[in-house]
Design brief:
By secondary structure, this protein is mostly beta strands. The chain is 0% helix and 52% strand. The protein contains no helices and eleven strands. Strands 2, 4, 5, 6, 9, 10 and 11 form a seven-stranded mixed β-sheet that branches. Strands 1-3-8-7 form a four-stranded antiparallel β-sheet, with no helix packed on it. It is globular, with a radius of gyration of 13 Å.
C-alpha cells in the first residue's frame, strides 16, 4: 500500500556532495517520522537523519553540520543533502517512513565516498 522509491546514490570523492531523494507513493499526512538510515559493510544499520511531520529534524552526531534532511510542501518527497562527504559515510542508505504502528522502507541506494 505504501512504496518508497529512492534515488541519487553514486560514487563521489571525499569532500564532495550528493543529494538523495525518497518519493512516497501517496501524500503523507498526519503524524509521521521519515528518516534516512545507513548500513556500512560489517556494521549495524544506524539512523543518519530524520524529520517529523511537524518539521523537527534530528541528526546523528557524525553527520551534524554536513547533512540536511528536508521535504517538499506536499510531503511526498524527502531529500537528504550530503556535503563534505567522508569515506566513512560509505554505506547503503535506506529511506524509512514510520506512521502509526507501521514501518516502510525504500529499496536502498549505494553511496560510495572514495578517492
Amino acid at each position: 500500500q505504501v512504496q518508497l522509491v529512492e534515488s541519487g546514490g553514486g560514487l563521489v570523492q571525499p569532500g564532495g556532495s550528493l543529494r538523495l531523494s525518497c518519493a512516497a507513493s501517496f501524500r503523507v499526512i498526519g503524524i509521521y517520522t521519515m528518516g534516512w538510515y545507513r548500513q556500512a559493510p560489517g556494521k549495524q544499520r544506524e539512523l543518519a537523519a530524520q524529520i517529523t511531520s511537524g518539521g523537527t529534524t534530528n541528526y546523528a552526531n557524525s553527520v551534524t553540520g554536513r547533512f540536511t534532511i528536508s521535504r517538499d510542501g506536499a510531503k511526498t518527497t524527502v531529500y537528504l543533502q550530503m556535503n563534505s562527504l567522508k569515506p566513512e559515510d560509505t554505506a547503503v542508505y535506506y529511506c524509512n517512513l514510520h506512521m502509526g504502528p507501521n514501518d516502510y522502507w525504500g529499496q536502498g541506494t549505494q553511496v560510495t565516498v572514495s578517492s
